[in-house]
Amino acid sequence: MDGCVVRHHSVHFMGDLTAQPIIINFHQLFQTRDAPAILPTIRNEDVLRAVVALLDTSLPDVGPRDVHETVHYPGIRTIILSRDHADVLEDYRGRTSRNKGTDVSPVPCKTTDRPNSTLKLLAELYSDSEEDPEETSEETPEVETSNSWSWERFCEGLQEFVEEVRDRKERRAVQGEDGKIPPSAVGVESLIVAAACYEVKLLSTGETVLQLSLLAVRKRHWRLGIGSYIMELLKTQPAVGQYDALVAHVDTDAIGFFKQHEFTDNLLLNDKFKELKDDWTNSILMSYLPPFTTDLEMRNPVFSLSLRELEMDMDMARSQALNAYQQQVMCVTRLLKEVKTLREQIGLQREEVDRLNSKLELEKQKRHDVENRFLMYRLKNAQKLLGSNDSDSDDQEQTDQEHSKPGTEEQEKAQSEEPLIQTPEGAGGC
Ligand SMILES: CC(C)(COP(=O)(O)OP(=O)(O)OC[C@H]1O[C@@H](n2cnc3c(N)ncnc32)[C@H](O)[C@@H]1OP(=O)(O)O)[C@@H](O)C(=O)NCCC(=O)NCCS
């Protein structure tokens, strides 16, 4: 067993599919001279290309460059589930004999053109067109530019690799008609069933978190329990290392799958892992908290449950909960007092407003009275003035009348008693 390639026993899935899990650190592997072959007779670079193609086809939102960078990142480990070469060959032979007489899907022609895009080439590897022509990728290719040595090297070899894949596909289609598929017509792209990338990280809080970055099962093999097997492998801590939480940026389409595996999307809890937040699109952060004892430890016959760690954690949780409760009570009590003070202040201000309003009314009344009195005064003066003018003219009139046309005594009296001006108050004078 080598440090950068760890193999586990073969696993049997539904539908008679057997695969072997391998855990690899690609970064370390490519830095090791005479690194062991991940899969017998297959170049390690081609395994990497097939893994990137599978992940990229299954997670189109991520992009081939980011997938490659993730897989190749120093601390990242990749779980690969690979089928046995003989099993796949037998599978193909059986499938072509079953399909005899029916149409075989068209095989892409060999081409010497340069790749029109990395994305298109990668999509071709896992289009699964042999069995299901309508599953081909419809993604619009993007033009990738890169200065990264490993990415350039990855792209350089990709065209050649894709041509080999096309050649194998063509040979399987042609020779499969006689049920004689040669072993060389089965390559790495046919062996790999699933892949997942993870990294063990230390948070600033001191907790260890296993971050699952990418996970994909080849579409042809969905719903056979393969994804669940990888999840169990990640939950089995002796296989991947000790951690306090398992965290993933989950594609929105796969939330149901992760919920089935006891992951939670609880925002308050997951806020704890916010420093792991990434800018993956269409994804949410979900987490799984492991039990204190893993299944594997329980299965060990000499295992005895140690309560010490559990008790320490309980004590810590209790004191933290108590702290949080005390903080909350303090905060609520002070807020209540603040509300009371504010209410009192509002009451006082309301009283002051009422007092000022009644003072204003009083002032208005006073002003009204003064204005009335002033008006009366002016009226009285005007009447006086008019009265003196009238008596002068009356004397003159009387003299005139006496000389010209004498009237009755009552008429003259009535005329002199008529008020001159009517005020609104009806007061003719004081
Ligand atoms: C999500 C994925 C890994 C599941 O792999 P799988 O091998 O099909 O999963 P399993 O066969 O172990 O399924 C286990 C259970 O989950 C359910 N399940 C599987 N995929 C699901 C999904 N996308 N949504 C909801 N439930 C799902 C299955 O029905 C099954 O339930 P059952 O036991 O009641 O029948 C696979 O669909 C995939 O590669 N998807 C594309 C990439 C992706 O979304 N990756 C995850 C985000 S990082």
UniProtKB/TrEMBL annotation:
Instruction: State where composition is biased (Basic and acidic residues).
Output: 400-416
- Keyword Methyltransferase appears in the UniProt entry: no
* Compositional bias segments (type: Acidic residues): 127-142
Region described as Disordered? 126-146, 386-430
Instruction: Name the InterPro entries for this protein.
Output: Acyl_CoA_acyltransferase
Which regions form coiled coils? 307-373
- Could you list this entry's UniProt keywords, alphabetically sorted: Coiled coil
**Protein name as it appears in the record:** Uncharacterized protein
